[in-house]
Amino acid sequence: MQDHQPVRRSGAPLLAAAGLLVGLSIPGHSSPAAYQPFEDDTLEWLDDYQQALALAKATGRPLLVEFRCSP
Amino acid sequence: MNRIDVGLFDFDWHHSIYFFIVSPDEQIYLRYGGRDAVSADSYLDLDSFALALRAGLAEHERWRAGALPPRPRPPPFFARELERLRVQELERGRCVECHMIGDYRAAAREREGTLDKRREMFRSPDVRDLGIHFDVPRGLVVERTEGAALAAGLLPGDAIVNFAGRRVLTFGDLLYVHDGLDRTAARLPLTVERPGAGRVDLVLQLPVQWWVSDITYRYWSIDPQTHLTTAPLTEARKRDLGFDPDGFACEVTRVNARAGVLDLHDLRAGDVIYSVDGAEADPTVRDCLVYLRLNVTAGEEVDLGVLRAGVRTQVTVRTHRQRFRKLGTP
Question: d(Cα A23, Cα A3) in Å, to the nearest integer?
């Protein structure tokens, strides 16, 4: 068992980012009519959870929510 | 962060990156994340992330079809409810780092007398200590086994689909369930998909102190630091030295220079610690330093029974309470 050793870490502010999981090219996965996938198969990243949740409710898409240290 | 319900989005806050895939009505389909003491990304890679995304979309189809049983939502919890975090960080406009939520919450529980260090300080036990080694790019497919997992009959190529009674889709799911286990648990049921054999139920016998893993990388102010590295004595050596073979006697293998800088103690490599504040054994602990970390409040002194050069003596150790880029006390 090891006690704490000093650990250097660069500044690590919280970034709670929320995006809509849309437009992914998934073999064998059909896109129901309610989906409106982006033509370029990208994720649309938002940084306001409530805004992303409202968009998910409006479009019926799932959310991919990311918590990470910066950058 | 103020508007995020961290009661719903609960995870081990010392993970550097963590994902949830969630329905529009905020049911969590799955988690993606997990780390160990070796690296922040031991369990992260693009292949397993792609598997998780596919699984999340499949879960979403089930949700849309009404085939996903609704789960009760956990009680809401917001960072601002931690008074010291609110006053010292949020109201000063400071950024709230992920690990601070965990540390402020643990410190608050410590003050309330409700902190369970076995569960809340020794978080996310390393499943490799159970002998489970995953083929990370393949998600929950087992690469090799040893120890308790081998004894339970887990085989390379098995894909774990149920862990401790919970359906798991990713390593993040599995680690979260593992983290939530009662630390007194002695057995762990799991179900695997075995190539050519279908679903197979197994029971893994959990070893003593299964919940202890290297938490060196964590930011904890609740951890009473001694800046020692120790190793438990074998039962034979304990007997040779006249100690209880079921006791937690251990040998100091390394003293970090910070112990001297902080004037914590004068322990040295080769010392054998056989008691902590008079206690020499605990049925759930095999290492003296683990016992100390569980039973001493960070910053307080503790008396250790020490065998040095064949002579038993008492050593008083002042433990260190760490602070992390915060002006106040969490």
Answer: 46
SS3 of B123, please? coil
Most confident of A49-58, B73-82, B156-165: B156-165
A13 with B1: Cβ contact below 8 A: no
Q: How many CB pairs under 8 A join A and B?
A: 125
- ipTM associated with this complex: 0.89
Among B42-46, B93-97, B272-276, B294-298, name the one with the lowest average pLDDT: B93-97
B132-134 and B28-33 strand pairing: unpaired
Q: Which residue of B has its CA nearest to A70?
A: B16
Question: Which residues, 6+ apart, have CB-to-CB distance to B236 below 8 Å?
Answer: none
B19/A61 CB distance under 8 A = no
The answer to whether A53 contacts chain B (CB < 8 Å) is yes
Enumerate the residues of chain A whose CB falls inside 8 A of the CB of residue B63: 62
- Residue A1 contacts B where some CB pair is shorter than 8 Å: yes
Is this model's pTM higher than 0.80 or not?
yes
d(CA B199, CA B323): 48
CB B298 within 8 A of CB B75: no
Average pLDDT over residues B265-279: 96
CB contact, 8 Å: A69 with chain B? Answer: yes
8 A C-beta contact, residue B287 and residue B252: no
